[in-house]
Each structure stands twice: as C-alpha cells, then as structure tokens.
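Box 4.2: Ligand-aware structure prediction
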Amino acid sequence: MSSDQSSVSSGSASDDAASQAESARATARKQLERAATELDLDRNAVERLRHPAKIQEVNVPVERDDGSVDVFTGYRAQHDSVRGPYKGGLRYSPHVTKEECVGLSMWMTWKCALMDLPFGGAKGGVRVNPKELSTDENERLTRRFAHELRNVIGPMQDIPAPDMGTDSQTMAWIMDAYSMENGETEPGVVTGKPEVIGGSPGRAAAPGRSVAIITREALDHYDQSLDSASIAIQGFGSVGGHAARLLDEWGASIVAISDVNGAVFDPSGLPVHEIPLHEDEPEAVAGFDGPTVSELSNEELLELDVDVVIPAAIGNVLTERNAGEVQADLIVEGANGPTTSVADGIFREREIPVIPDILANAGGVTVSYFEWLQDINRRSWSHERVNDELETEMLGAWDHVRSEVEERDVSWRTGAYVVALSRVAEAHRHRGLWP
Ligand code: NAD
C-alpha cells in the first residue's frame, strides 16, 4: 500500500483547518468508495485512486515591505495523471492544508474525466491570508512559490489555475517566473491568465456559467420553469456572482446572495447586476440596501424556503447540523465540496436532489482546457466560440450523468462519479501498472 505521507517536510495547521481538511479528503474517499461499489470496480484500481501520486510541500520565504522575512508553507498535490497532465487550482488562504489539497486534487481527477478532458487532477495553495499582503509582497510570494514548484509544473506536466484568493494576475506572475527560468515564453503553464498574454475570453465567468447551465437543465428535468424559480446563492465571486447574473438574465429570481460578511435577502428578487462582483469590489454584498432588502447570516441563507440553493463560496457548509433544516427543493453545488457525506445521506433520505460540484462548476476547468488549446496552438478563439463550446460540453456531460442516474436509480453525485470513475479506471486498465 502506498503512503499518504509522501511530502518532504511537515507544516503546522490550526485544529480547525486540520479537521476541515481531513473532511475534504475523507469526503472524497467516501464518494470514491460509493461509486466504486456501484461500478463493482476492481479493488486494486480503487486502492490506487485512494492515494495521490505525489505531494510537493515547500516553504516560501518572502521579504515583507518593512524588510522582515516571513516563511509561508505551500503545497501541490497531484492525484492522478493517467488521462493527461495534472490540472487544478492554486489557493491562497489561511486554511490551506496538505489534506485539503489532496481531497481537492481527487475531485479534479473526477471533474476532468467527467468532462472528458485530457487532464488528471491536482490542487495546491499557500497557507497565507492574501488580504494581509501588499501587492508587492503577493508578487514576491507568487514568484518564489512558482520557482519552488518549477520541477513539478509545466504545460505537459501540471497546469495550475486560479482558485480562492488567487486571480489572473497571480497566474500572470507564475507564467512569467516559469517562462523566465525556462528561457522561452510558455503561456500553457497556467490557465486563467489575462487575455493579452494568452488567457481565454470567458474564462473568469465560466464556472458560474456552467453552474447556471446545469441549474437550468436540472430545473427542466424536474419540470420547473426557470422563470418561476427562486434561487439563493452563497458567495458572490467568480462562481456565485456570475451564476447569479446569468440566471437572473434567463428569468430566475435571485432572492438571496452573500459574501464572507453575511447575506442579503429580497423576496421580490435582488438587482444582482447592480451589486459589484467579488473580483470588482470584494465584500460589497453584505450591507447592500433596498426598500425590501433584509439582512441574513450565511447559515440562514442556506435554510431559506426557495426552489434552489447554490452554495458557491467554501467547502463543508452543508453538514449534519443543518441538512435537516434545508428547505430548498434542489441543491446545485457551485463551490467544491460544500456538502459533507453525512449531509449528503440526509439529503438522499429527504429526497432533495444534490447536483454535484464535479458537474456543476466544471465550466471553469473546461474553459481552462480551451485556454490551454489556444496557448499551445498560438491561436485565440472568439468569446462566442468559447461560450458555444462550453454549452455543448456541459450539455453532453449532463446527458451522460442523467442517463446513469435514470438507468441505475442512483443520486446525481453517484451518477457523475460513475461516468468519471469508469473513464479513469478504464484508462488505468489499458495502461497497466508500471514498471
Ligand atoms: P472568489 O474568491 O471569487 O469568491 C468567493 C466568494 O465567497 C466571495 O463573495 C467571498 O466573500 C465569499 N466567501 C468567502 N468566504 C466565505 C465564507 N466563509 N462564508 C460565506 N462566503 C464566503 O472564489 P470563487 O472562485 O468564486 O470560488 C468559490 C468556490 O468555487 C470555491 O470552493 C472554489 O474552489 C470553487 N470553484 C472555483 C472555480 C474557479 O475557477 N474560480 C472553479 C470551480 C470551483
């Protein structure tokens, strides 16, 4: 049996962060077991997939603006590359841990396979609060982190992307650091870059767009029209904000949204185009006022009596503590891992469908794939082409998952895992175990 502890050094984490992180990996493993049982998968294949291939752990010294030096711990967990280079985001957050990166890297393997992209799964990050860094400190941290990861990332090896606390500027610094050290411009080493250096039109909005597309399809599946749907969305960033605006444009009523400081609720629908997205003005949601707007906590938002609730901020927000209180008829996971496995079981018993993250927010990695294709071909696509091809890919994945759900009478999560896992397991079977 391979070891989970394959990193080269250790770092300390707060108890809170550690237990959250264990939950990410534990949740990912339980989901794997459930789908493997459904598929009657060979135990040897499951054993390989329970473990990441490699975890890089690095300590990143950064000179602060006052001349002092702080050292931050960073990780890159690479789960599986049987179908292609590793792919996944980089997070800057005080809660980043090795265990969390492992769980998130497993989800990336399934997400890429579910979308039939030629990538495997990875995730990484630095345990730091980016809000406490100046722009110059952030740039120094990012360039040094890129240097520390230079032997494990690359356009054909492992391709990072933005995630919580990182953005297109972070990716631009990584691309520059990698390119300067390699002696040639390598736009394909990261995705989610600014367009002028090889980023794709539509990338920033893509995960929210896919959440909106899947919400529309799910409502249609359950014979509910989008026009009459009330929706509550936790998080107003790249995922939640773009999903809210698109669903609003398509006729739904977005009755509640939130940021880290709290939620706002308007039963007649919020003007989501007037409220700044996280990328334009962080934390502009809580405090937004209007004649019929009231304030709620993030916890209360999840328990509103709405047609759809979309957790699109952080992981582990739907747990055994609140799963019995959720009143929505449908849950669409915008964030990665918002539902613990116990909560998932409660929703199954209560017959509340949960459309899983690896399907709903997969637009992000799908447009990252389009960006990578544009980079290696040195040819850019129009915004219209990106959105059209994303729509096609999302509908294709939705149809595959829906067929499994109907044929096997399983949950949406298990249906999605069945599609993904059968592709990954089949690839391993054909390639075999080396040497
Ligand atoms: P973001 O940084 O753009 O926005 C996050 C939003 O959540 C902000 O509105 C922030 O105020 C809010 N938030 C932060 N902490 C919160 C808390 N404790 N409670 C409630 N709200 C909180 O992040 P994002 O890119 O939209 O990512 C959100 C989730 O979606 C993460 O789980 C991420 O892994 C996942 N995701 C992101 C992408 C992507 O490409 N950006 C793709 C797929 C999945």
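In the box above, the bound molecule is nicotinamide-adenine-dinucleotide. The mean pLDDT is 93.
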